[in-house]
Design a protein that fits this description.
With about 1050 residues, the protein is mainly α. The chain is about 55% helix and about 5% strand. A three-stranded antiparallel sheet has the order 5-6-7. A two-stranded antiparallel sheet has the order 1-2.
């Protein structure tokens, strides 16, 4: 943002000045985008003050003792009902009278939204502008009746004599009377005239006009408390509440404008969620329908437990339903329904199997059934046969509490060592330090995976049964159960399975308090049973965790408003000073936000904190996974979700993501992508999450935010100095705390620009050298794996005689020899190139493809004599081996052509021996030994070949064929000059086939074409394409070298 950038530009300022007064006053538009006639404002003022005038008539008659208070309310309500119907009928008549005219859409909708054309004070267009009317006739009647009720009850609520009885202060009475009627007028105007744009919005579309009911419903609530105080026995607590609410009634317009009060639907869902979670032991649900159904079932369970006459029956009922309700019943029901449909209509089974997100089979059913039976047996046996006594240092319940403490400490420590930071401060010494290579990361992560398995067993199998034993031994269950016992223990038995970690913490806290507080006179022991204690500890735990988080957030916003240049403004010093001076007020807002479990909102990202309205964990009304618009971005994230969900499931089970609570937010980073994950629901062995992705076309602010996220992640995962000691978290206190690295298989969307990198002369020259090294590595590994090792490595079958081999056929002609007349690259001979085999050790060719082109050197005596030609008879079916007399000749093919009548010139080479008998393990195929290079380039070739790298590659073969004496064997192989010459010939032939015989520095376009299999034609390319296996290995090495070069500079 910066200090010189205005908080709101001119357009936003104008829009804010038009909208905010409209929101505060409930709908009147007193500031328009053009010069409107005066009667527009006069009409709106008259309509705004009508409820006050009608209520004032009734109030005057009451003050003059002409009418009683209830008759006064009836008179004012009846008058308001009549006026409301007149207003609605007038609006309906104006809409029918006006003619619909199509007009061209204006490009600036927000500027012209308040413009209209009128010709008089009461014409149809003016009435439509001021009173838009209702969509449905039912709402026209209902809202008019409700307006009359509010006006009548509001008159009764704000009678001066009644207010004087509450406060005994004339000044206070006058202030409450005046501003209270302003509140009533605002509610009436939004109900029957024009609904204001609310700051607190939950539904994206107001299809059924529920927004108009928001303010009137709050007015009715305040009046209902006053009526309860009037017609009930005089209760001091209710009187104090009524006094406080009368004062708050005056400030309702401010609370509406700031968005502190929630819409009715959000308030209803939030209330059900809080009762379900803290009163009934459930979890926030992933959809509103699931929340309503689960709330009704859970409440019915608690009520039914009260009417069970047997204590054993109550315990078994609570245990069984606590376990069943903690499962993902929707998935179980879907699987059962799918099984029935599959049996009836087998044709639909395949479609249903593809549509179902998770299969629930008989193994899961058997596992859950066994757990349920064991839990019921344990509960019944302990409740019947165990000796019950008060909680003491030697009681059985105390012994179980010690076991729970040990389990809590062990599981807590095992969870902490799963993430990269311990307690969010120290880097975990057990966490993998190298997280940039997937294979290395997975190998070193094996230890933590085993620890995660142990933790999962303790949480899912051991801890629940230990907590059931603790609850079953409680003495509160032996007496006749009360309402508090049914509510508290129904919640406790369900929390054991629904949220095992929190239940374990709560029981440990209650046990510690009972161990240190033995006084029976204390209210904790005298008035509360164990179930209610666990309920109170659960509420305190949740609100305390929220308080710590929101304090951390407030401090972070306050500090970064000064330390971050982008957030520093001219008013920053003043705002920080005001926060320090009014520190109690800031703390009050934070505590209020915590108690309501509502968001803490920094106004315009400034350190000015407001309290948002309470809402359920699923803070949007639509279904999970729904998107506002379908676009190419959606396709990218849809293909990523399955693999990401699987990786998240493993991390959650291991505890790598910390304490997993509904409402927890996680941020994932992959290349340029940011992914927002919200935990919606959690139960026994399952978790429901929402995954949302950032749009692919980022803005400048997204880039800045992503850069800061990258800094935090790099400091945690990509710093080598962490291997030296236990460093601290540089970003401790930040809202974003790194958790772990997840290996996920997905598509890349990297779009880095390589200008200045791929066209650099230095990089291009280094690319050629790197290509030689990569090709050496791949050919050595390829030849080693394709050649079967001999049965005996001591060379006994050869009787000590090293094998014979022909020398490579170096050409005497200055022209390279061409074995075929092919003038283009035939891509049909290549295997399919896929993303999966870019970095594989071997190509994904078919086993039987081109098998005849390979010559394997085997120790068997049935192999033909070196130099012989194996041929098959054309006429017969038998094959015979023909030994040529001219054993050592090599046919010289190429230019110039030889006449048919003349005998072809033959070139003879002496046989050479391997100096090491084991070199045949790395022998290259015989068809690769034909030459394509002139003799004049032989010396140059040997100078370019990296001999040190060649010896290093040979030394790495130990990982593929470990033997006790392998080091000596590899050293002898490395000294074999004949084998080295063979690799020099094969590697450099591929090198000159790709880059040409002139050995020039390649251009960027050359590299791109070669990477895309569009290698420029040359004589060497024809030679190379005749050997598909060699060509595929060379092309794979070229592509791998290109990708490594790209990724290296991209990460730099």
């Amino acid at each position: 943002m910066g200090p010189d950038v205005p908080l709101l530009n001119d357009y936003k300022q104008d829009f804010f000045l038009k909208r905010f007064p409209q929101t505060v006053l409930g709908g009147p538009r007193f500031k328009l985008g053009y010069c409107a006639p005066p009667y527009i404002y006069v009409n709106q003022i008259i309509l705004f003050l009508i409820p006050w005038v009608l209520g004032g008539i009734g109030t005057l008659l009451y003050q003059l003792d002409i009418l009683k208070d209830y008759y006064t309310a009836a008179l004012s309500g009846g008058l308001m009902l009549f006026v409301a119907f007149v207003i609605q009928m007038t609006s309906l008549y104006a809409r029918k009278k006006s003619v619909t005219i199509e007009r061209m859409l204006s490009p600036d909708t927000l500027t012209d939204e308040d413009e209209y054309e009128s010709s008089g004070c009461a014409d149809a267009e003016t009435i439509k502008f001021i009173i838009p009317g209702k969509k449905y006739i039912l709402n026209t009647v209902f809202h008019s009746v409700l307006a009359g009720v509010i006006c009548g009850l509001g008159t009764w609520y704000l009678l001066p004599n009644r207010i004087t009885l509450l406060y005994s202060n004339i000044g206070g009475t006058v202030m409450i009377f005046i501003f209270g009627w302003v509140t009533v007028c605002i509610g009436e105007y939004s109900l029957i005239i024009n609904t204001a744009t609310e700051t607190a919005t939950f539904q994206t579309l107001d299809t059924y006009e529920f927004t108009a009911l928001m303010r009137p419903l709050y007015i009715i609530f305040f009046i209902a408390v006053d009526l309860a105080h009037r017609f009930t026995v005089n209760l001091p607590a209710l009187e104090h509440i009524n006094q406080i609410l009368h004062i708050l009634f005056v400030f309702l317009p401010i609370l509406w404008a700031l968005g502190t009060l929630p819409p009715p639907d959000a308030l209803f869902l939030w209330g059900m969620e809080q009762v379900l979670e803290f009163g009934l032991g459930g979890s926030p649900m992933s959809s509103h329908l699931r929340l309503l159904v689960m709330f009704l079932v859970s409440a019915g369970t608690a009520i039914a437990s009260y009417f069970i006459p047997s204590t054993v029956g109550v315990v078994l009922f609570m245990t069984g339903f606590g376990f069943l309700l903690s499962l993902n019943l929707s998935v179980i029901g879907h699987s059962v329904l799918e099984g029935k449909i599959r049996r009836k209509t087998p044709a639909k089974s395949k479609t249903l199997r593809n549509c179902s997100k998770k299969q629930f089979g008989w193994r899961e059913c058997l596992f859950y059934f066994i757990l349920l039976v064991l839990a019921l047996i344990e509960t019944s046996l302990l409740h019947i046969f165990a000796a019950f006594s008060a909680f003491s240092k030697t009681s059985p319940q105390t012994i179980i509490s010690y076991i729970l403490m040990v389990l809590f400490i062990v599981t807590w420590l095992l969870r902490e060592i799963q993430s990269v930071y311990v307690f969010g401060i120290f880097r975990n010494p057990f966490y993998t330090k190298d997280t940039r290579t997937v294979t290395v990361f997975l190998e070193k992560q094996t230890r933590l995976v085993k620890v995660g398995v142990v933790r999962r067993i303790l949480l899912t199998l051991v801890s629940p049964f230990a907590m059931i034993a603790f609850l079953s031994l409680d003495s509160s269950l032996q007496v006749l159960h009360s309402v508090s016992v049914c509510i508290g223990f129904t919640r406790a038995f369900r929390m054991v399975w629904q949220n095992t970690e929190n239940a374990l913490l709560e029981m440990v806290v209650v046990s510690l308090m009972q161990l240190f507080i033995f006084s029976k006179d204390l209210w904790w022991n005298r008035s509360l049973d164990t179930g209610i204690r666990l309920l109170l500890v659960g509420i305190i735990r949740d609100r305390l965790l929220q308080l710590i988080t929101k304090l951390q957030f407030a401090v972070a916003v306050l500090l970064t408003s000064w330390t971050e240049k982008k957030q520093r403004r001219k008013s920053t010093t003043t705002l920080i000073t005001l926060n320090i001076v009014f520190f109690p007020v800031v703390i009050f807002f934070i505590v209020l936000s915590t108690l309501l479990s509502s968001p803490l909102l920094p106004l315009f990202t400034l350190p000015v904190f407001l309290v948002g309205f309470p809402r359920p964990v699923q803070s949007w009304p639509g279904p999970v996974g729904a998107t506002a618009c379908i676009c190419p971005d959606t396709v990218y994230y849809e293909q990523m979700v399955p693999s990401l969900s699987a990786a998240l499931g493993s991390a959650m089970a291991a505890g790598s993501l910390g304490l997993l609570l509904p409402g927890s937010h996680y941020l994932c980073r992959f290349q340029d992508r940011l992914i927002w994950i919200l935990v919606l629901e959690r139960g026994y062995t399952y978790c429901c999450i929402s995954i949302k992705g950032l749009e692919l076309q980022e803005t400048s602010c997204h880039t800045v935010e992503a850069r800061r996220v990258d800094d935090v992640f790099e400091a945690a995962f990509e710093q080598e100095e962490y291997a030296k000691a236990l460093p601290l978290n540089e970003h401790f206190g930040n809202i974003l705390t790194p958790c772990t690295v997840l290996p996920v298989r997905l598509y890349s969307d990297g779009r880095s620009v390589l200008s200045g990198i791929i066209d650099s002369n230095e990089n291009l020259q280094e690319f050629k050298d790197d290509f030689i090294k990569v090709l050496v590595w791949m050919l050595v590994r390829y030849c080693y794996k394709r050649t079967k090792p001999p049965k005996k490595l001591d060379g006994s079958e050869n009787n000590g005689v090293p094998p014979l081999i022909r020398q490579p056929e170096w050409n005497n002609s200055p022209y390279p020899q061409v074995p075929s007349d092919t003038d283009s690259l035939n891509l049909e001979t290549l295997d399919e190139w896929s993303d999966n085999d870019v970095f594989d050790d071997e190509s994904t060719t078919k086993k039987d493809k081109k098998e005849n082109g390979k010559l394997k050197v085997l120790p068997s005596t049935s192999l033909p004599i070196p130099g012989s030609v194996e041929s098959r008879s054309v006429d017969g079916n038998s094959a015979e081996t023909i030994s040529e007399d001219k054993l050592y000749k090599a046919v010289a093919l190429g230019l110039p052509a030889v006449d048919r009548g003349k005998q072809r010139e033959m070139t003879y080479f002496p046989l050479l021996e391997f100096s090491c008998s084991h070199s045949q393990l790395l022998n290259i195929p015989e068809e690769w030994r034909s030459g394509c290079l002139p003799k004049s380039r032989i010396n140059e070739i040997k100078q370019l070949f990296p001999e040190d790298w060649y010896q290093f590659v040979l030394s790495q073969l130990e990982s593929f064929h470990p033997k006790e004496n392998l080091s000596n064997i590899l050293e002898e192989i490395a000294k074999d000059e004949v084998l080295k010459d063979l690799y020099i010939h094969a590697v450099m032939s591929c090198y000159f086939s790709f880059f040409g015989i002139d050995n020039m520095v390649p251009s960027p376009s050359h590299i791109f074409r070669a990477y895309s299999s569009g290698i420029p034609w040359s004589l060497g390319l024809d030679w190379l394409t005749e050997k598909p296996e060699l060509f595929q290995q060379a092309l794979k090495a070229f592509r791998e070298c290109t990708l490594e070069e790209y990724l290296l500079f991209r990460n730099c």
